[in-house]
Specification:
This protein has 150 residues and is of the alpha/beta class. It has a single domain, classed as D-tyrosyl-tRNA(Tyr) deacylase (D-tyrosyl-trna(Tyr) Deacylase, Chain: A, 3-Layer(bba) Sandwich). The chain starts with a strand and ends in a 5-residue tail after the last strand.
Length: 150
């Protein structure tokens, strides 16, 4: 499982010109599901993102988690994060989970994140052609890979 978490001042996702979800200050998380991912990967990613301390404290240091200041979170499924470009220039998506597994694990990740951030997690729609807008704050962008956690 791979995730990219971006600290944002705002982010939104639209589908077919209609806004699906919007957040203010918080995290935009792009999530890719690998065909070998399990519930253990879901929990690891959700815990790491949910406890990620990239928000400034009273001293201006990146020392607060999302829950510490009631920030918002927008989770977007993005299977292209699993792409491989080892051979040639055209990405291979052979390692991405099948759609049924991917949708199930994205839903589980959203539910797990709710537990860690103690607030609702907004999402896009799995499998839809989504347009994501964001204002990156910092910029702060953190990459997570549950297969490289050792």
């Amino acid at each position: 499982m791979r995730a990219i978490a971006q600290r944002v001042t705002s982010a939104s996702v639209s589908i077919g010109g209609e806004e699906e979800a919007r957040i203010g200050k918080g995290l935009l998380v792009l999530l890719g599901i690998h065909k070998k991912d399990t519930e253990e990967d879901v929990d690891w990613i959700a815990r790491k993102i949910g406890q990620l301390r990239v928000f400034e404290d009273e001293n201006g240091l990146m020392n607060q988690s999302l829950a510490a200041f009631n920030g918002e979170i927008l989770l977007i499924s993005q299977f292209t994060l699993i792409a491989s470009v080892k051979k040639g220039n055209r990405p291979s998506f052979n390692d991405a989970a099948d759609p049924e597994t991917g949708e199930r694990l994205v839903t589980e990740a959203a539910d797990a994140l709710k537990q860690y951030v103690e607030r609702p997690v907004k999402t896009g729609i799995f499998g839809a052609n989504m347009q994501v807008s964001l204002t990156n704050d910092g910029p702060v962008t953190i990459i997570f890979d549950s297969h490289a956690r050792a």
